[in-house]
Amino acid sequence: YRILYCTTEFSKEEVLDRLICMRYNIELKEMRRCENGTIEKIMPYLESFKSSNLYIFDKSNPGLNEIFAICDDYNIKYLFIDYLQELQMPGKWSEPYEIGRNVKEIKDFAAKTNTCMIIASQFKRPLTEDGYIPALSDFKGSGKIEEVAWVALLLRQEQDHLVVHVGKNRFGPKGECRLMCNVLTGELKDV
User: Fold this and answer.
1) In what helix (H) or strand (E) does residue 163 lie, and over which residues does it extend?
2) What is the pTM of this model?
């Protein structure tokens, strides 16, 4: 299957750097300095990446029509958008209304094309309280996000752990899991 990763904050090169670091458990600064034989480690991955089914679209404030056109042109079946609030809002209505409209268009496109969509969203406010469990109402911009989502995963950082809280799951259980997070390489492991 073909995968499209849309990023509004990172360049293609930065995304690729992070993928390499996760794949080989290399710190980003070590890779960028080409220390400890990193070039020899990553060359096979770079070669395999050329023929992979992963496409990266790096544009600030992209429009949904641009993203959907790429999906159609490359027969994309998995779409990751990072992140919802940075998509173009073509109307002249309020931000919550425009975000809700984008969410609805994304859902309609997913249903029409049988494409799996994974959309990252910001929270309304920083989650600074220790032990605070984020809720669906914490999504920034629109209640439409919680309304149309089939599954909503709410993430929070606790020291060296990433806590994944399943806030909504139309077809299964809710709950949470903890992952060990190496912030230097981006690697995640079960705790």
Assistant:
1) strand 161-169
2) 0.81
Give SS3 for 56. Answer: strand
Distance CA 95, CA 104 (A): 14
Residue partners of 126: CB distance under 8 A and separation at least 6: none
H/E segment holding residue 116: strand 116-120
Find out whether 179 and 162 touch, Cβ atoms under 8 Å.
yes
62 and 8 Cβ atoms separated by less than 8 Å? yes
β pairing state of 116-120 and 161-169: unpaired
Query: Which segments of the chain are extended strands (E)?
Result: 2-7, 54-58, 76-82, 116-120, 151-158, 161-169, 175-181, 188-190
- Which among 86, 91, 112, 7 has a CA at the least distance from the CA of 54? 7
For residues 54, 60, 65 and 70, what is the CA-based torsion angle, rounded to 10 degrees?
-20
* Count of beta carbons in the 10 Å neighbourhood of residue 52: 11
Condensed to tens digits (0 to 9), the pLDDT of residues 22-67 reads 877 777 777 777 766 667 777 777 777 777 888 999 998 899 999 9
- The residue written with tokens 């809002």 in the block is 89
Between CA 56 and CA 32 the distance in angstroms is: 20
Fill in the amino acid letter for 164. Answer: V
DSSP state of 134: P
CB 185 within 8 Å of CB 28: yes
Strand partners, 189: 180
